Amino acid sequence: MANAKMTFLSQSEIELIHTQSLRALQEIGIKVHSIPTLKLLEARGADVDFDTYVAKLSESVVADALHLAPKTFRLCARDPQNDLTMPSHPCPYGTTSGLAVFVTDYETGEYRPSSRKDIAAFARLGDALSPDFLWTAITANDVPEFSHGPHELWQTMQNTQKHVQGVTVQSARDANIQIELAALIAGGREVLRERPLMSVISCPLAPLSFETGAIEAQVEFAKAGIPICSMSMSLGGLSAPVTVAGMMMNANTENLASLVITQAAAPGAPHVYTSESAPMDMLSGNINYGAPEKVLVSYGLGQMARHYGLPCLVADTGFGHDTKGGLESVQFITNEFIGLAAYTDIITGMGSVDGAKGISFEQLVIDSYMWDFFKDYLKEIEISEEKMGLDAIKAVGHGGDFLSSDHTLKYLRSDLTQWDKAKLDLLALDKDAMPREANRIVKQVLAEHQVPVLDEAILREGDEILRAYEKEVTRA
Q: Rounded distance, CA 207 to CA 199, Å?
């Protein structure tokens, strides 16, 4: 089967990035602000200096982790029909953005701090639309600061039958609360291990550093069988070298280090090679999501993940400053399409506005419709004698036409894409009319789409867990 992909790195360049990453891990090492995690690394063969919190990883330590990491696993869902097998094929899985602190109120149009109510509504909208699974996209600003991650997971999991990927984890205790909540829905911790209804984003601090709470949480998730996405955010010119090559090498090094930690905690634990790396905008100091170099980094890191045989999340879409889509923004469309064609298993960002600080319900509708179109470019195409139709050409003869050919009638619907006219109509609207129509669709979907309610006893127990955790973190 033919499947469109875009290649950036040659094999020799892939090998060079790998070699330089190994040198960085051996000569510089990683700084891990966690004595328990350093002890795990030492037990796996790392050279650890407990005074400086630096662990140096040899080539053999990295090779062992790559050998232990599963090359395929599932991201499971409340409804098994929504289970996702990693790596994806032939098209990446699409998911939402996270973790926004503002939301555009779809009822009033006000751009305001987000709440648990917004999380529930956005998750239900995502359940009805095209995202294959959902990030915890919105911050719960209406709960105690150190308890918002579990609240976001709990609200999202109640309102979707798809897989949920958590974005906020602040400590090992926080991780165990989230595991406990997911296990309630799964039917126990062992069931959750077999069917992980959640996965989690875990971010190193570029360059080559791991913060206490996040890395100790990652260890707990790995032990519970929860898939880890080790998201390197290597910002060129700020936390990584300014060059494309430097950003790729730093992100690759951090991914290998994070993988070693996961496998040290729980050999065979599922792990996703992950990056949201890009240059820094030298004028604003923000991450430059629209830079062409960001796309090139995605290409290269997707190839690195394939080189290691690891599933990956290295591409995203969206991140504009306001609601947009259709044919209006060349940058927006280019980023989305190129992300699809990179060697990635997941592409994130649906619903994002304001440089990822905000979430728009209308943007999620537009992104979902665009996603439905774009992924048709990655469908598998059979290249065979039958499909080439030599016999049909003979039958038609010189200068004839294929309008009534049996070959045309046989393959017209299966081989040519038939796009949804209603979705095309939305994307053809101008920048003022499109958000209005998308808002109408949001209201219609939320009025009509219902997610099966969890058992009352499960809801009650989950709420009790959260109330107790709120008191715990408030006292601390």
A: 24
Buried b (16+ CB within 10 A) or exposed e, 412-422: eeeeeeeeeee
Among 318, 258, 251, 323, CA closest to 289: 318
Per-residue pLDDT, averaged over 58-65, amounts to: 98
| CA–CA distance, 66 with 341 (Å, rounded to integer) | 25
416 Cβ contact list (under 8 Å, min separation 6): none
CA–CA gap between residue 136 and residue 59 (Å, rounded):
36
Q: Is the peptide bond before 90 cis (omega within 30 degrees of 0)?
A: yes
Backbone angles phi, psi at 185, to 5 degrees: -75, -35
Q: Is 225 left (phi over 0), alpha (psi -120 to 50) or beta?
A: left
The CA-CA-CA angle for residues 297, 299, 300, to 5°, reads 65
What are the angstrom distances between the C-alpha of 148 and each of 113, 177, 283? Answer: 14, 11, 32
What phi-psi label fits residue 422: left (phi over 0), alpha (psi between -120 and 50 degrees) or beta? alpha
What's the chain's length in residues?
Answer: 476
Token pair 């979707």 is found at 160
Q: Where are the domains positioned within the chain? A: 67-378, 385-415
Q: Are 25 and 253 a contacting pair, CB within 8 Å?
A: yes
Output the CA–CA distances (angstroms, integers) from residue 161 to 252, 350, 449, in the order listed. Answer: 33, 18, 12
Residue from 216, 219, 161, 226 nearest 193 by CA: 226
pLDDT digits (tens, 9 = 90+) for 22-57: 999 999 999 999 999 999 999 999 999 999 999 999
pTM assigned to the model: 0.92
Q: Which helix (H) or strand (E) holds 245?
A: helix 244-265
Residue type, 5: K
Domain 67-378 superfamily per CATH: Trimethylamine methyltransferase-like (3.20.20.480)
Answer whether 223's CB lies under 8 Å from 193's CB.
no
Contact yes or no for 151/466 (Cβ under 8 A): yes
| 345-356 per-position pLDDT tens digit | 999 989 988 878
Q: Could you tell me the two tokens for 226?
A: 């929860």
| Percent of all residues in the chain with a pLDDT value above 70, rounded to a whole number | 94
Pairing mode of beta strands 358-360, 102-104: parallel
